[in-house]
Each structure stands twice: as structure tokens, then as C-alpha cells.
Amino acid sequence: MRNYIGLIHKESDSDYGVSFPDFPGVVTAGKSLDEARRMAEEALAFHVEGMAEDGEAIPEPSSLESIMADPENGDGVAILVSLKTPARKAIRINITLPEDVLERVDAFAAAQGLSRSGFLARAAKHEIDRGEAA
Questions:
Q1: Quick count: other Cβ atoms within 10 Å of Cβ 84?
Q2: Where are the extended beta strands (E) located within the chain?
Q3: What's the pTM value of the predicted model, to 2 decimals?
């Protein structure tokens, strides 16, 4: 299990955003601090799974000192995010969606700091869990 530094960012009119200095471009958010932490673990796990599938090397975690020495990270509050599970193999699929639905999916996913695949996987899990609970 590896631990990475996540940086929480919060402005008065926003949710709690989380970014990962070791994984530029990976961001997520939550309405509460607890939700942001949970979403951070999911986003990190999903991103690392994709990297493993693509044959990319997973970076070693940076130290807190090196991350906070970067002036761009000064406004973030550091949290430790555990990569608890080994990367699961993701399977590439081809689906067809109406154009307007795809545009809405992409816009919503981007606003949540997710990829299209990450959003669709999360939505599918949500609906399956909801159906099983009924």
C-alpha cells in the first residue's frame, strides 16, 4: 500500500477540491471534507488503474516537504491518501450514446474532476448498488 499527498483546496463558494501533486491533472471534489477524502481515494485508485492498463510507471510518492516547498501548493492543506488496492485491470469497451447525453456526461464528469470512463463506472456502480438495495 502506497500513500500519496493530496491537497485540499476550498474557496467560500466551492466544494472541497482535492488535487495530487504526484499526478498532475487528477482532481476530484466533495461537498464535505469526508466526501472529498473518500472521492480522493477513488480518484487516485481509478487513475492508477488506468496508468497500469496503459503500461505507465506509477510514480513513487513525493515527500510532504518537497510538495509543500512548491509555491503553487502553498494554498492547499495536505492530506494522506492511501492507495489501498492494487490496480485492477480495466477493460476497454465501445458504447453508443446520443450526442446530447454524451455532452452532458462529459460536462458533468469534468465538473467533478473525473474522466468520462470514471464517471460512467461510478454511475454504473451507483445504479447497481441501488438496484440491489431495493
A1: 11
A2: 2-9, 16-19, 27-30, 77-83
A3: 0.62
Alpha-carbon distance of 134 to 97, in angstroms, equals 27
Integer Cα distance of 45 and 96 in angstroms: 26
CB-based contacts of 53: which residues, under 8 Å, 6+ apart? 87, 89, 90
pLDDT in tens, 68-85: 999 999 899 999 999 875
Cα-to-chain-centroid distance, residue 92? 19
56 or 116, higher pLDDT? 116
Are the C-beta atoms of 16 and 31 separated by less than 8 Å?
yes
Q: State how far the Cα of 32 lies from the Cα of 76, in Å rounded to an integer.
A: 16
**CA-based angle 59:116:120, to the nearest 5?**
110
**Quick one: how far is CA 106 from the chain centroid?**
15
CA separation (Å) from 133 to 22, 64, 103, 127? 37, 41, 30, 10
CATH number at 1-88: 3.30.160.250
For 22, how many CA atoms within 13 A lie in the half-sphere containing its CB? 22
Locate 41 and state its grid cell: 481515494
